[in-house]
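Appendix B. One record, verbatim.
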Amino acid sequence: MKIKSLFAVIATLVVGLFLASCSSNSTSTTTTVSKMPTIEGFTYSGEVPETPQRVVSLASFNTGYLAQLDLNLVGVTSYDKKNPVLVDKVKNAKEVASTDLEAITALQPDLIVVGSTEENIDKLKEIAPVISVEYGKRDYLQLVTDFGQIFNKEKQAQAWLDSWNKKTQETAKELKAVTGEDATFAVMGLFQKEIYVFGNNWGRGGEVIYQALGYKAPQKIQDEVFKTGYLSISQEVVDQYAADYILVAAEDQETGASLYESDVWKSIPAVQQNHVLKVDANAFYFNDPLTLEYELTTIRDAILKMK
């Protein structure tokens, strides 16, 4: 009996060690490392997971791309939290700042995505693998493919691009039947008492209006704004940067009140013809897939209402 008992104990120990070994091996292989493709403007630190489970996004211009690919965002910026486009996508994420290392660590991220100008990047590297992205280095649509390559979601990325191209072509045809093929657009942003004119690649709806829908800007805007992306102007000369249609992005209704009451604004033909699209700047800052979809719908609805 004693010998049988001894064999039973040994057998139990062997089975236990075998199961423990299997469990250990399973844990070590659950995280597949991304191929981390070489992409201009992208820098990797550490072993970036191909399918990250807990992502902290500390650069708002990246957040919409990550959300579009269905990555689990556990930490985002304060701006992301107030962005109407992202409100549902980040409702379970915690608002964090890049300087609050303790809060970020508590979220137990397996990936942190930052902008290339992030000052705390060396400290963030100690918490989790980091992807640093230089803003404006890559075309806004190419970034969809770029993030798809990193996270092995090329098919999902391409499906969105195909859908976007089809949708914008159809919308352009629909809207130009209302505005006319040769209608021009100006994109402006109001910030407190400042007025900005934006080009075709600096967010605020410029990518949708000028690139996706194919509208043109007045020559003055093309010459003075498109190269730099944006231009600060005074209220006195705002009429010089007007067009057949004007999109104005402001964070609230009070911003721009003095401009709207000015004689120079009221003298603009687009204003007199009610060809002004007033939009929420909080939702129009960037050019990620979620923002683009929102902008396209907003612009389409506004122009059709003018009809």
